[in-house]
Inverse folding.
């Protein structure tokens, strides 16, 4: 039997679980690099998923703690969609994915880890799902999260808003 070592996962497994909501806490800490916050807009922000499905997995959320779509103000919804568009533009330029999974997990039954409404943008490439998840329940992330953060952040800094 072969072993696949993923020592960075131990920090998630053994870490003390954060109190409260990451989508409320992280933006208020004002340490964007540490918190993987890529972009801040008037009503919403985006950040890399610290434990991504694929490299470049972005989360878009309003600053205001809302749990359901019917609680969103139209301005928040519009800001989220603009940031979704810009995020895809940057992912396309920086990472050249061949497709995307875009969606929401709303409520605990859907698998949402936090009640704070947020949008997932997962870049996809042909062949990124292979034998590893099927046979060993292991997902291989090909790029270190800091390299992904720096690349996407650079894209946002060059974006004409």
């Amino acid at each position: 039997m072969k072993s696949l070592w993923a020592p960075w996962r131990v920090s998630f497994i053994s870490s003390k679980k954060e109190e409260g909501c990451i989508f409320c806490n992280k933006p208020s800490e004002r340490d964007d690099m540490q918190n993987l916050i890529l972009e801040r807009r008037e009503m919403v922000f985006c950040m890399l998923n610290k434990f991504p499905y694929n490299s470049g997995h972005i989360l878009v959320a309003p600053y205001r703690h809302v749990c359901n779509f019917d609680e969103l103000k139209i301005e928040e919804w519009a800001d989220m969609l603009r940031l979704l568009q810009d995020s895809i533009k940057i992912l396309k330029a920086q990472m050249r994915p061949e497709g995307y999974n875009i969606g929401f997990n709303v409520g605990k039954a859907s698998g949402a880890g936090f009640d704070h409404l947020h949008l997932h943008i997962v870049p996809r490439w042909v062949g990124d799902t292979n034998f590893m998840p099927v046979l060993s329940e292991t997902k291989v992330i090909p790029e270190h999260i800091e390299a992904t953060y720096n690349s996407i952040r650079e894209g946002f800094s060059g974006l004409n808003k």
